[in-house]
């Protein structure tokens, strides 16, 4: 009976692409996708369905037309993301799991990672007088936290006895632990005395609501400009700065991988390509030659 009901629902959705998006969100929640993945995939499917709004059934959109749609997305990484979303949509909702099987998955572009240096971070701290903003910057640059992990922190996640911070349900719904430097603990204690947050989260916005990612990136841009930095600074660059600085000071790559919460060491290895300190210190065979 249950299988018959699901088939009827699928047939109905194949005739109504408007309802298909809502069902896609429901299916992703059932599969326990992360909130960010659900939001991002839903946005991609919304764009996709708008492009093919003249089709009465989503199943009638041919694979060739989907491939042309994807090729019109100039950014390779965005195209890969769109392909993943569309593939999941046809698998979970339209019951066509092989719809995109002959559409190649584009190779990911390799670009050097941008990051904030220790000197740049020092300049930003120097022009920041807001202790809440300082604490947030310190968590991103000093511990490598993602912006979503920072705003999800709760007071009980700070373990001053063992000098660690517990990251609960980070990216990929994984828990992990990162170090808690003494100067960061002192800063967080001063912040707590001044703000005494009561809404459950360590950092709160207006009306005791959870602090927003947008607010963090806004004040980072403000302090970067005030510090005279001539580039766009956002929270993820601070996380990249943490990883790069850790590598340059000799922290083992496997430890950095664990602290950052990377599934694969390949992701962490990207930082070996951007560490100018390591590159400049790498010996050349020319050193053995008198020229």
Outline:
With 291 residues, this protein is mainly α. It is built from 14 helices and 3 strands.
What does this structure look like?
There is one protein chain. With 291 residues, this protein is mostly helical. The chain has 2 domains: 2-92, DNA polymerase, domain 1 (Orthogonal Bundle), CATH 1.10.150; 118-281, Intergrase catalytic core (hpI Integrase, Chain A), CATH 1.10.443.10. The chain is built from 14 helices and 3 strands. It has helices at 2-14, 17-30, 35-51, 63-71, 76-92, 118-126, 131-143, 147-151, 182-195, 213-226, 235-248, 253-260, 265-269, 276-281, and strands at residues 158-159, 164-167, 176-179. Strands 1-2-3 form a 3-stranded antiparallel beta sheet. α3 (35-51) crosses α5 (76-92), α7 (131-143) runs antiparallel to α9 (182-195) and α7 (131-143) crosses α11. The mean pLDDT is 87.
Secondary-structure element string: HHHHHHHHEEEHHHHHH
Mean pLDDT, all residues: 87
Helix content: 40-55%
- The gyration radius over C-alpha positions equals 23 Å
Number of helices: 14
> What is the straight-line distance between the termini?
83 Å
Task: Give the CATH superfamily of the largest domain.
Answer: Intergrase catalytic core
Q: How would you describe the shape?
A: globular
């Amino acid at each position: 009976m249950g299988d018959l009901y699901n088939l009827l629902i699928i047939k109905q959705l194949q005739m109504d692409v408007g309802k298909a998006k809502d069902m896609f969100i429901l299916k992703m929640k059932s599969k326990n996708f992360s909130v960010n993945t659900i939001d991002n995939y839903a946005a991609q499917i919304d764009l996709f369905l708008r492009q093919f709004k003249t089709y009465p059934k989503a199943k009638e959109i041919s694979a060739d037309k989907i491939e042309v749609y994807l090729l019109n997305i100039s950014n390779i990484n965005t195209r890969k993301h769109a392909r993943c979303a569309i593939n999941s949509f046809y698998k979970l909702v339209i019951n066509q799991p092989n719809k995109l099987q002959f559409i190649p998955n584009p190779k990911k572009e390799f670009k050097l990672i941008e990051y904030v240096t220790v000197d740049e971070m020092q300049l930003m701290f120097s022009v920041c007088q807001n202790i809440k903003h300082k604490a947030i910057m310190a968590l991103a640059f000093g511990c490598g936290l993602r912006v979503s992990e920072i705003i999800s922190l709760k007071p009980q996640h700070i373990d001053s006895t063992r000098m660690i911070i517990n990251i609960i349900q980070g990216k990929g719904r994984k828990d992990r632990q990162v170090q808690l430097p003494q100067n960061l603990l002192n800063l967080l204690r001063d912040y707590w005395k001044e703000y005494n947050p009561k809404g459950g989260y360590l950092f709160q916005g207006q009306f005791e609501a959870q602090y927003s990612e947008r607010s963090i990136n806004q004040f980072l841009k403000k302090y970067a400009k005030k510090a005279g930095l001539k580039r766009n600074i956002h929270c993820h660059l601070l996380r990249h700065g943490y990883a790069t600085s850790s590598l340059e000071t000799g922290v083992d790559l496997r430890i950095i991988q664990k602290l950052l919460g990377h599934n694969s060491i390949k992701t962490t290895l990207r930082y070996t390509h951007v560490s100018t300190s390591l590159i400049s210190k790498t010996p050349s065979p020319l050193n053995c030659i008198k020229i």
